[in-house]
Structures are given as structure tokens and as C-alpha cells.
Amino acid sequence: MSDSASATAALGAPAAPSGDRSGKTRAAYGGGPPGRPSARGVGRPGPRRGVSGGSPRAGGGWTPWLYLAPALVVLGGLLVYPIYQLGLISFFQYTQAQVSGGEPTTFEGFGNYAELFGDPRFWQVLFATVLFAAACVVSTLAVGCALAVLLTRVRAVPRLALMLAALGAWATPAVTGSTVWLFLFDPDFGPVNRVLGLGDHSWTYGRLSAFFLVLLEVVWCSFPFVMVTVYAGIRAVPGEVLEAASLDGASQWRVWRSVLAPMLRPILVVVTIQSVIWDFKVFTQIYVMTNGGGIAGQNMVLNVYAYQQAFASSQYGLGSAIGIVTLLILLAVTLVYLRLLRRQGEEL
Amino acid sequence: MNLPRARVRRPGRLAAEASALLIAVVVAFPLYWMVLSAFKPAGEIESGEPRPWTLAPSLDSFRRVFGQQEFGRYFLNSLVVAGSVVIASALIAFLAATAVTRFHFRLRTTLLIMFLVAQMVPVEALTIPLFFLMRDAGQLNTLGSLILPHIAFSLPFAIWMLRGFVKAVPEALEEAAYIDGATRARFLWQILFPLVLPGLVATSVFSFISAWNDFLFAKSFIISDTSQSTLPMALLVFYKPDDPDWGGVMAASTVMTVPVLVFFVLVQRRLVSGLGGAVKD
Predict the structure, then answer these.
(1) What mean pLDDT comes out for the span B17-26?
(2) What residues contact A115, with CB distance under 8 A and at least 6 apart?
(3) How many angstroms separate the first and last alpha carbons of chain A?
(4) How far is A323 from chain B (nearest CA, A)?
(5) What's phi and psi for A337, nearest 5 deg?
(6) Chain B residue closest to A76 (CA)?
(7) Beta partners for residue B17, in sequence order
């Protein structure tokens, strides 16, 4: 029990507190420094920890609450209360006039939501957000898993080289990653256009190519988390199992599909859900790379849209309503995650 | 484990190793280009013939960056924010993780699930209410407005991750301590804390990065007093969409990235030694 539990401790938790990790933040947010925690959780079923590491002691009276108090105060004040406020503001007419106290705040009921859902622009942004996040998740998982498999096929030196490079990408802050990728693809001075012979083609001008450029950066900084985690998971599969499979005449593909995939499923669930959550919340990359949402807002995603509505147009009520929509979508993803965890018999 | 390695034919393995090396080069290239461009003299950066090397490395870009008014101060501000977040959230998370792993009490499972759910909250969406909260508390334009939210946002993850480390400390050790007459507080700080420290350090890397990289709060909460700005904002001074000073941007990016890389590498070492040596019963 404690083995699977600690696997999640190392792997399951890596929600980046802030979304820009686009990951990176997210990347960083990723789960555990490469190799170690994951390897620890998944890789070594330490019998010692399992048995003696502790079942919680009963009782303790008020002591656990005393220990929890600081955490609960901070979370209550800076997480729960703001969520409540966000919901509240979303029901009010709340613009610059109200903020400065010039006009009274008026309760609008679902007015902001009605305005939002009646605006084709919102649906367009929502659609773009979902598509963009989906593309990021699929690419990140594909690259991460493929490279994890590649890592198991090579000797120490190439493995170390790839691990180190991935570590570097993982550690790069979202802001600097964004500026560096912009520079790489700069129409005038960037090496990419030179090598590809694209002349002064601007990547941020077109809607799709701008999204594509951001996607490249997001995948670059988020695949390391997937790669390291999945690699640790593959390493944890006992060699005898694979040997037995190949002795039974299973093909390479068959071994993958019928032996490894089911054993890796818990890990794949974790990295998929984490990626969905991170990529849905991407803010910094879009904001920096497309300069606040692209030409005429063509590269807006929900987070940037909410930010622009609130802080650029002073439509705080409307911005909050968009925030609530984002929150609800991510909550739904989280519930799916919890169900999957529970199905795996995760003990909390 | 060994993937059926014996069955990988030699040419196959060579091809795999060659592609691994090639991919490593591609993945590392943006970072290489960043550092390289930071050292290139002005004429070479803004040239239509970008070369992957430079024969005349120069510190001009770094000089421009550090010569920018108060860049050192921004750096310091970033350090203060990230450092405070790391220390505060590590201590608070340690206490909370101890509570949920070492005690049985009502609502324990509920709390754990809430911590898990809290990790999914889109921080960006909370910028609006936090802005008003900070304004009402008079915290706008102070580093506190950056520190406090980041403590809150790193806590759920830190608690969840630390849980595994606290759990790994054997129960027998705790009983032995009490038999020897230790109080709860003494056990907590003198026995449990040092044992969990490697895990705390590993967890800290994530709080550090989220605070160090913070762009949105720095942009939203530090609105008029630029002496309270942090590095991401200082970097963007050089990045004007129409006419970016690429040398300055790359030098500032390098300065901002290096501490994170160092922290990553340091933590990895401590983690290994910590896990190997800390828990022996």
C-alpha cells in the first residue's frame, strides 16, 4: 500500500502551483527532480518502507489540527476566499467606475455570463483554448513517451546527455523560454529561418503559425517531466516479466501493448492529467510570445482573455466570469482524475 | 530493468544512440543559443547571417543589463520573494504533512482530497480577486503581494509530495523517541525534521521555481512602484515588440535562468544522498 501511495506522492502530485509552467512553471512544477523521486516512488518497492513506514497513529487530540492550522489559514485566506470572491465578482457589474467608488456595484445575477455566452468571441477563444491544449498534451505525451523508450535503449553516455538537456529545458523559466524561442524564430536575426531558407517569414503574424510556435515552446519545456516519469516507470517493470513475455514468443509490439502499457497505466494517467491541467492554463508563453494575445487577439486563450478583459478593459465582472468557467472546466478534469486514482486503489 | 536489450541488434542500438545524442543537441540548442547570444557583440546578434559561434565574445549585453537602473535590485527582489516562499511553505507544509500522515483524525481523507483539488485551481483566474485583496490590505506594490499568494499556491503540492517522505520515517523511531522521554515538539523538530529535510529540499525546488518565474502577479500587483519589480519584468524592459534589444534580452534571460539550473542540480545531489542515508532503521 505505501508503495503505491508514495508513487503518487512523487508522481501524482506534480501540479504546478502556477500554471506557467506552461509548463515550466509547470515544468518545474513537474514532479520531482528528474530521476530521483520518481525512481524512488515507482522504481524500488522498498519493503522496509512499506512495512515500517507508518500507518498513522490514532488520536493525538488537537495536535494534528495545531499542525494543520498554519496551512489552513494560508489556504483559506489566499485560495478559498479568493475563489469565493471570484464567484461573487462574476455576478456583479464591476468596472473601473465601481472600483474607484464612483458608482455603486450592482448585482447582475447571471448578466455577465449571459453576455459572455452570447458573445461569439468567447466561444471562439474557448474553442481555441481546448484545441491548443489538446495539441500541446498530445505532442508532449508523444515526445515524452517516445524519448523515455529511447532512453531504455541506449547506453549511459547518450542517456546522460539527453537527461541533462531535458533537465535544462525543464528548469528554464517560462518567460526566458518564451523570449529565447521567439529569438530563434525571429524573422530577421533568428537561425531557424536561415536554416530553413524562409527569408523573413514572420512566425507570429499568422494565427496558426503563432500558435504552432507557442506549442513548440510548451512542448520543449514540458516533455522532460513526462519523459523522466515514464522512464522511471519503465525501469520499475521487473525484467523477468518482459523476459517471460519474449520467451512466450511475444513480439516487441505485443510486449508493449499487452505487458508494458497496462503496467504503466497509472503513470500515464498521472502525466496525462497533469499535462491537461498545465496546458489548459498556459498564460506566460502566450502572453509573451504573441505579445498579449496576438494580432487583434487572434491567439487568445481563456486565461489571457480573462486577464485582458479585467486588467486592460477594466471589465472585472466579465473577467471573473471567464475565470469561473476556467475553474469549472479544470474542476471537471480533476474529478475525472480522482475517479481514476480511486479506481487504481490509491489509498489516501 | 533491462528491456529485452539482448534482442536489440547492434546497428539498431547505434542508431538509437545517435538519435538520442542528436535529440539532446536539439533540446539543448535553445539554451546554448541564449547563452551564446548573450556573449555575442552587438553587430553579430543583429545580423542576417546568424552563426552558431562567436569569435569575439563580449560582455556588452551583460553590462547593459546590469547597467539598467536597479537591475541588481530586481534580482534581489526575486531572491527575496523566492526565498521567503521556499522557507515559509516548507515549514508550513512540513507541519501539515506530519499531521495528515502521523495522525488519524476525522476529515483526514477529506482534507487530503481538498489538497489534491487545490492543486488544480487555475492561479491565473484568481488574479482578479487577489488584486482587490492586496489592494484592500494595502499590499499592492510590495513584495508581500507576490510572496503571500505563492506560499498558498505551492502548499498543496508541497504537502502532497512531502507526505511520502514523512511516511517513510519508521513508526518505531517515533515510539523509541517517546520512550526515551522526548516530547512531541522535540520529536518533531529534532528527529523528524532532519530526516525529512532532503524531501523538503526536493519539494522546495517547485516552490522556488513557481515564485522565481512568476510573471503574472509581478505584472498585475506591482503597478506603479518599479523598485519592487522582479526579474521577469526587468527582462521585458529589453523586449519591446517592435524593436527588441535581443542582446539585452538574452543576457537577462541567462541571468534569470542560471539560478534555477543551479538549484536543480544542487537539489538532485542532496536528494540522492538524503534518500540513501536518511532513513535507516
Answers:
(1) 94
(2) A318
(3) 10
(4) 5
(5) -55, -50
(6) B152
(7) none
Q: Residue B195 corresponds to which cell in the numbers above?
A: 530526516
Nearest residue of chain B to residue A221 (CA atoms): B27
CA-closest candidate to residue B30, choices A220, A120, A187:
A220
Q: What is the pTM of this model?
A: 0.82
Of B20, B167, B263, the CB nearest to A162: B20
ipTM of this predicted structure: 0.84
A305 Cβ contact partners less than 8 Å away, ≥ 6 residues apart: A122, A125, A293, A297, A322
| Cell numbers found for residue B70 | 536597479
**Chain A: closest CA distance from residue B141 (Å):** 16
Quote the pLDDT of residue A50.
36
Is the pLDDT reported for residue A105 higher than 70? yes
β-strand pairing of A106-107 with B103-104: unpaired
B contacts of A191 (beta carbons < 8 Å) = 33, 50, 52
What is the spatial distance between Cα B20 and Cα A50, in angstroms, rounded to a whole number? 36
| DSSP structural state of residue B170 | B
Residue A267 Cα, gap to closest chain B Cα (Å): 16
User: What angle, 0 to 180 degrees and rounded to 10, lies between the N-to-C axes of helices A81-89 and B127-136?
Assistant: 110
At residue B149 the predicted structure's pLDDT band, cuts being 50, 70 and 90, is very high
**Overall fold of domain B70-273:** MetI-like fold (1.10.3720)
Residue range(s) of every CATH 1.10.3720.10 domain in chain B: 70-273
Name the residue of chain A whose CA is nearest to B48's CA.
Answer: A189
Instruction: Specify burial of residue A102 (Cβ count, 10 A radius: 0-12, 13-18, 19+).
Output: exposed
Contact of B141 with B224, CB cutoff 8 Å: yes
Q: What is the pLDDT of residue B174?
A: 87
